Amino acid sequence: MSAADVQAVVGSPANFELLVQQLLSADNAARKQAEAVYEGLKAQPDACLQQLLRCMRQSDKVEARSFCAIMLRKALTQAEPDMWATSSPQMQAAIKAELLRALVEESNRGVVHKVCDTVSELAADCLDKGSWPEVLPQLTELVNSGNPAAMEAGLLIIASLASYSTNHLRPHLAGLHPLLASCLNHASIDVQVAALHACCNFINALDEPREREGFQPQLVPMLAALGRCLSGGDEAAAQDVLELLIEVAESHPKFLRKHLSEAVGALLQIATAAPLEPPTRSLAAECLVTLAEARDKAPGMVRRLPNFVGALFDALMHFLLDVEDEPDWHRGDTDAHEEDGAGELFDGGQEFLDRMAIALGGKALVPAAGARAAPRRTHAAAAAAALRRPRRVLSRRRRRRRRRAGALLPVWLGDADWRKRHAALICLAQIAEGCQKLMEEQVEALVAMCLTGLRDSHAKVRWAACQALGQMCTDLGPELQTRCGAAVLPALLAAMDDFANPRVQAHAAAAVVNFSEGCEAETMGPHLDALIAKLLALLQQGKKIVQEGALTALASVADCSQEQFVRYYDAVMPLLSTILTNASTKEHRLLRAKALECVSLVGMAVGRERFRHDAAGVMQLMAGLAAGPLEPDDPTHSYMLQARAAHAPAAPQRRPRASAPPARVGAALPHAALLPRAPSAAPRAARRRAPHAQAGARLCKALGPEFLPYLPVVMPPLLAAAALEPEMKVADPGGDDLDDDDDVEHIQLGDKVLAIRTSSLEEKATACNMIVCYVDELRDGFFPYVQPVGELMVPLLRFYFHEDVRRAAAAALPHLVRAAADAADKGVPGAGKEFTSRLVGFMWDPLIAALKKEPEPDITAAMLDSLGEVVGLADPGALAAPQVEAAFGAFGSILSAAEARRSQRSKRKAAEDFDDEEEEALAAENEAEEELYDQVGTALGSFLKAFGDAALPYVEGLMPAIAPLLDKARPDEERRIALCVIDDMLEHSAAGRAKYLAQLMPVLLDAAGSDHADLRQCALYGVGVCAAAAPELFKPSAPAALAAVRAAITRPDAKSDEHEMATDNALAALAALLEHHGDVLDGAAMAELLVGGLPLTSDAVEAAKVHEFLVRRLEAQDARVLGPNSAHLPALVSAFVRVLGRGTDLVDGGVGLRMAGLLHSMGPRLPPGVVEGAFAGLKEKQQAAFSTYMAGQELPQAGESPGPRSSHCLAASAGGDTLYVLCGELEPRIPLTDDVYAYSVERGDWSRLRTRGEAPGGRIAATAAVIGDQLVLFGGRTGVELGEGARGDLHVLDLGSLTWSSRRPAGPSPAPRSFHASAVARGQLYVFGGCGADGRLADLWAYDPAADAVFGAAAHGGAGGCAGGCAAACGHAGHVITFAGECAPSDKGHAGAGDFCSMLACLDATSDAPAWHAVEAAGGSGPGPRGWFGCAALRGDLVVHGGLGADNARRGDLWRLALH
């Protein structure tokens, strides 16, 4: 572009019009060249504006005039630099005059409307700047001109100014009222609609009710104008009017009150008028539903209208009849034709039923006359969502419309018209969630209706029955699955045999998905054989759509059944592998993607040990697919993201929302969900959001640390997706540049529309959530990515385009801090306290800023939760005083805003239509707000736990906001939240106890008598805290506290489901009183009361404390606990049996074994049948858990475990709190590394230690033991043959510094050996037997670390276990215990399993003549025969890890055998 090109159009109208044609050209090159010239022309404002104005007024081409009107508006109001401001006064005057003349003289109505837009925006800008005051009289003159076209133009501009420049028009309202009234009665429909437009805009824009009331006289003429549009056949105009009325109904529904009956009647007539176009009828229904939703602005208004609910329900049910039986629907092998036959009214009917059901209260939805009303309910989430929902954006669904549904649905289900039967079932699906409690009462009858539908003669009705069943499984589960599963699953299996209708087969499989999501594994178990056989059959003989559905159902069933799925693994996995390998053609890409998701869930279900063999091949396939040239529309990409990760289980929605994330099944899977389509919606299978929660990447979860090698493969695409920028643009409403695409969401921003492509946002959100899963699962293994992920996530805390992105960003922060802290603990290079502190500092200020700005209360709650976790994880020194002050400032702002919202909501009580239903809705909204109070309280607790007394001044600063919650006039739940803060202060701040305990004890004791269970629980917890933490301060309150505790324990309903948690806390407080105040209170009476309340079963934390206290007191033979003449023993034993039957739920594992030891020792003192009777009352699984405790225990294993191995070392710390595993083999004769793994007995998790120094190196068949703070390793071998590479060396690991050193003790050295046994007794390391260079050994040696010397030892007796290597040994009370071993070798040598035994033998090392004796184990199956395993003594018990089983498979299990 040259200056000459610009000058060529400056003075030539013809050249400029040619430029306009080029700007409109479809030829990219020509258009770009013209755009360059136009940009140059804009540097001469007067010339540019003059040409635009001349072309708009004088061109003989409508297209050119229309285009120039648009370009002129943009030049005058949007251009950079401001062309209006830089143009000459003469040009400005000419523009004003020509624009107004164009309104009268332009012949094309479309061009006039674009000129109106230009005048409106220019006038609004000028009025704001104090110029063009004459425009208002000029517009009034146009309206009074009598020329219908000019009148319409003037009214449209006034309507726009009513929205943009309300304050400038406010002084002219008195004159505008009669003007608009006369125009509403004008003969021209266009004038009437324009006047109505102006009236509605004024009503919406005016803040003062008094000003809006000035338009009341126009309401009836407005409705009349709507009627004239319809009677005149101008439905386009009628639709414009309905759109305007919807806006009024949404913004100011009370404006319609005086003429509500007329308005609703007119709208119902339109909605039910069959001759009218579907969009017209849908808009009328939209207006009615919008009125029903106006609970915050007009509570109860429409519900009081006679017959409103019934008439609207009937109308919407008839909308569902807009469906035809299209042949392509039946023939379809893909989703392509699933909506064939569904009309526009059908789609709208589903949405409107949903929204109507949520909006209306329970008493409006009772069954027909004679049926009882349903109980009142609280549905906080649904109510809050309904209040936040933007118009016409699909959201969470349905409270059931019972009166009409109760009468109409059974009639329609029996109708001869298949469309009515279809509609009734679709209605059930739509209303299930909102009417959950009402429908749960009649679930059997409702399921029976669906089962009848499954047997219907029409395929579409059977499809709808699957839809209804599946949706009810989601919304009424697990109640439905438990009560009706035995009928539902066989019926769905029968529907899967409908090979003539593959769409029904696929939908039945999708219903199985929903059934599985809300189903307990025990409920699913009896049906697994038939279900999996059917799904496998469909995979091999069904059509593609059926195969896809079967894969998703199989994945969901695996996720539900978990370990029960192991027995099907060998049948399922080869088929899945075949699909993954062979389904590579374009038409089978979705099948391959679904197979991938299925594999990931199967892997999680069966566990690492079973899945490990196939996992490597799956990951390699994924890596190859990720690296390959996948086409943009290949679903494999999104499925790989989801296959790598899992969220908290969430049920699929019935229909998508406009910005819906990808669907999930089981643990977040895309699938053929039960979702009918809705107009202008995102991809069909939209998922409902849930507390993300949270399982982790599926394959990562299945593989644990073994997934780490694949992290470099999966992380780069995830990071790229998480960094995607939103695809968006700002456009004019109704403009040609707006995308008419289901993937684009449009948001009105003032006079503009923001168009956002949702698919990129969903991909970003999915990637962010996947990253959260990885860091949560891998912890320190994720450390290399902590910094880049932190730099990515922290700014996303304020990514306001997508809630899930912000939620994931918040969730990531504590996981990142934990990963950094764990890495620092393990000595990972680059990690350390300094890095962790920098990380906390980097995220802190942005998190606080995001908290203050976050618009969504549920996201605010998530951010508060993350902040509390970060505080708990961070070193207190990482947060300076200003940072803490900022956090507490944010807390104060959140509490103030929440209180202000609560106050505003309470004003609704003054509304004349406020009733019981609105009271219920108001309570639900307040309940939703309580989550914020709760999270603030939890965050305060985190600060108090982390900072103690240092946090007290900050907490005191918030007490003016917290203390009012204690008022008895406040809801009990709010009082509970305040008490939780008080509990935390009293528990974690000694200064707080000293300062406030005396004045707070009356508050706690008063609340301890509350009938509200949760409030009472918190109060009693605080009583127990004070009794234990500040005995002297508490002493004056002890008698009153005991009375309150006794009253709580002896309530008639104390052990009911509702009150049991509070009772457990009362019993815990009683235990604290007994322990710390038994000298001043009646200890015997307290002990009797405590024993009588056993066991604690609801509050696991308090249960563990109290049960440990009792074990401790019984071990000390406390007479108060035993009772007179041990009278309490039967009750104690019965309680202990129940506790041990719950595994580790109610007692820590180590304490449970001590409890089992007490049971053994108390047995002879018990009356006959006490243990047996208590045992008989346990369920089968509980009996197994109890037996395990009594005979030993398989311990839980989490974290970075050492995995299966044999011929390795296992040792226990001196205190019995940690186990250590190192060396060994996974493949025969191939030594594993000398990495040391530490197991926390308390937490039940593994971690890998970062050691240094002179390490022993990888070896097999060595032994190790802990003496003091040293881990001592002896012997082993590195070679393949029996004597090859045998070692006789001694290595010591200092467990404090994690430093290895080699030792050469004085005295004779035992021969190099492997497969020997060792144990610690009397401070010495004993070594027995093994395989030497010349064969098997049976000698005994001892190493004294204090003298750093080795000496020989003699033993007598012949029961020392199997001669030769595989027996394991440990020390116990001065004895050496051996277990199992290889009695005879395998003919395959070390590559096979020999003749293993499970014999226990004991050597009395305290005797002057040590001798072996056989020991017989009592009860339980124990670890079973095995060899080459690790063994150690743990707190007087025997611990066994891994080894080789009789099936020649290496184990990774961990057992604890009680040696009593």
Task: Describe what this molecule looks like in 3D.
The chain has 1460 residues and is α+β, with helices and mostly antiparallel strands. The protein is 55% helix and 10% strand. The chain contains 59 helices and 26 strands. The strands form six sheets. Strands 4, 23, 24, 25 and 26 form a five-stranded antiparallel sheet that branches. A hairpin with a 7-residue loop joins strand 21 (1395-1404) and strand 22. Helix 9 (135-143) crosses helix 10 and helix 33 runs antiparallel to helix 34 (589-606).
The outline comes out as elongated
The multimeric state of the shown protein is: single chain
Report the end-to-end length measured between terminal Cα atoms: 96 Å
H/I helix tally: 59
Largest sheet: 5 strands, antiparallel
Structural Rg: 38 Å
